[in-house]
Amino acid sequence: MHLMQLMFLPTARPRYYNHNQKQPKQHRLGSCLSIHHTFLCAINLGLHEFAQDTEQNCKPSSSQTPHHVHQHCFCLPRFTYSSLSSHIGFSKRLIRHTIRHFSFIRVYTNGTIQRFIGTSVAPPFTDPVTRVRSKDIVIDPTVNVTARLYLPGNAIPGKRIPLLVYFHGGAFFTESAASPPYHRHLNSVVGRANVVAVSVNYRLAPENPLPVCYEDSWLALKWVFSHLKGYGKEPWIKNYVDFRHVHVGGDSAGANIAHNMAIRAGSDHEMGGVY
């Protein structure tokens, strides 16, 4: 029997913003961000209804793009405000206000996708402060599922230490295992906790709608445990990991993925008795 524990970071509780009431700028920002996160999750969950009135629902800026997608506006061609508000209970006015103020991604009518956040990449290296080593590996080239591995600088071959399987956040549509904030975070965690870490790089929406990220994460988790049965070939896992202490964790969308992976691992016979 093998132990799997769940660790995830809680996200902020959504707050509702009353447009008729003057509130501090910080409070308004927090409210809109929470609502905007809900909006992104609703899109990623597949509320893709064709609509002819999308452009009428969001005012264009002074300069139109060649693809008829508005500047400074989160806007999906196959989506309606009415369907969104009916599913998550927000008014059209509130949704428009949130969309116009937070432009994180743009989807063009020809299918091109442009992200404005979460695209920076940090290369793997040996961290000069923590002495943690990192490298990128390919789990499944057919679906482009990869991961970044971390190993403490004082790790000794044959001396087994716990494993953390980490899933990054980003509302299911942005960030990656190589994002600088996550690279710094995992360097710190691995150095302080003295664990091996596998940071999973799952495919993102909207190119790959949910539940693709869950299936990619499950594929990665099965790849990790294949080393327990002797099939895996990654030396950092084969030579250092204590499979009696495997933890899954994440933040934001990654916390949701970690929760689902822990539940599935406990009930799936493929994992060979993980609990």
From TrEMBL:
GO terms for molecular function: hydrolase activity. Residues 164-269 form the Alpha/beta hydrolase fold-3 domain. SUPFAM superfamilies: alpha/beta-Hydrolases. Pfam families: Abhydrolase_3. Belongs to the 'GDXG' lipolytic enzyme family. This is Carboxylesterase 2. It comes from Sesamum angolense.
